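Annex B. Sample input.
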Amino acid sequence: MDQNRVDQNRADENDAAPTSSARHRASAPEASRLPSSDDLEVLSRQLGRPVRDVVEIPARCVCGNPLVAATSPRLSNGTPFPTTFYLTHPVITSAVSRLEAAGLMNEMNDRLAADAGLAGRYRAAHEAYLASRAEIGARCGIGSVPEIDGVSAGGMPTRVKCLHVLVGHSLAAGPAVNPLGDESIAAIAEWWTVDRCYCDGAWDTGGEAPSRDLSRHGPQGLPEIVGRPAPVRKSRGTAGTGESK
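Annex B, continued. Sample output.
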């Protein structure tokens, strides 16, 4: 299977020439949110490890590949899992890691302390995250998870602790839900934009998908896991026609 090949059915549904509003969002339509076996294989290759308990694909590249995975709020082993939206695309994770290394989280935390309006919008993003997790839990049959009731991810509602979480939320929810996630997406435009495909060469497509954890990805908001640096990969963007060069 060519992991970076355009899924023709998706291309027909979404149209090869996106509208002005579509060019600014990656959130997937409801019909394409259920993960296929191909999606799960791509996710495993993107992350360098077998994926588990992925219940939806809430954001996709223009070519159809996953950008964000939605994980069940309770894993199959019974563990509560608060990080619902997990950023998976290596080009985006690397770009966001650059922002973190440059100190953007500290700047955002200073602004949250000084700007009541921004703080209010960020708290609303926290509430939206919780609502989305509850909806996903209901759709996948898990229901409520009391252990993480009121707990979102990424430092919300008062701090910024992981930009990967905020970007994953913004890509899944669409614009104007998480203000700092939206800002972070704008800040990585040098390396990634929503209207172009950057999948070619971004992950290994040869051989079998990973059967054990080979990842270098960080924990994305899970404080009990010691983070590892995200991979730095160079990838050339292609026009948003749904085709990779």
